[in-house]
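Dear support,

I submitted the protein below through the web form. The confirmation email said the job was done, but the results page showed an empty box. After a refresh the structure appeared. I'm attaching both so you can tell me whether what I see now is the final result or a partial one.
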Amino acid sequence: MINLESGSDIVADYNRIVIKVGTSTLTYGNGKLNLSGIERLSMVLSDIANQNKDVVLVTSGAIGVGMSRLGFEERPSNIGLKQALAAVGQGLLMQTYEKMFAEYGRIVAQILITREDIFLEDRSTNAINTFNALFKHNVIPIVNENDTIATDEIKIGDNDVLSAYVAKLIKADLLILLSDIDGLYDKNPALEGAKLIKRVYSIDDSITGIAEDTSSILGTGGMRTKINAARIAMENGIPMAIVNGNRPDNIYDIISGREAGTLFLTDGRCFLRKG
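What the results page shows now:
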């Protein structure tokens, strides 16, 4: 069920928030890092963490950054080569994040996750303990799938879906996906007359039918993977939002109860306030 308009609102309090940022937000079309965008994002997340909230950043971009550094113009299909590019790019990404967050007095930690860390009980328990220890010491975890060792058979496959599983794992109150468009539209947003869907209360055929997969050269996702993430989040009682990552202040709007992007609401609960 969808809604193109606003409705009556109930404010919820979010203390543990997962934010996912994609390759298209982190990099320019040539694969170079969007340093000003990363700095703005680092400032916003640091500011939110300063409000005594637990913040997790799920980041894409390792392969895309590796491609740029090694001079690749197209994403390779060979798994070994993709893993090598991820190994190069992940180090560069973390170096950038560490520098940016340090400007705002925040320490970050890298967590590389595989499917087994989510679905095997012993491994997931260890992962939860790691997250909790980092939160206790006011560290912001930065999460990516461990692309350097994961094969197609054991990969989660996309960081939209990974972020939903991370939100489930740590019992987050809210999941925010940063996209390169304003949210979910009722048809391809490149087409004339496309309207932003402001609220989604359930994932049905009307939603999956309009979630066209629009993969980019550097990234792997599209709106379809975001809908898959929304389904996982909603099944676990976690509200989710898709907002434009080129305007990180959208994150403030969501956690403050102001309208932004597309909101996926669980159990009929709204989490916005007017004004």
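Response: this is the final, complete result; the empty box was a page-load delay. Residues 230 and 257 are 19 Å apart (CA to CA).
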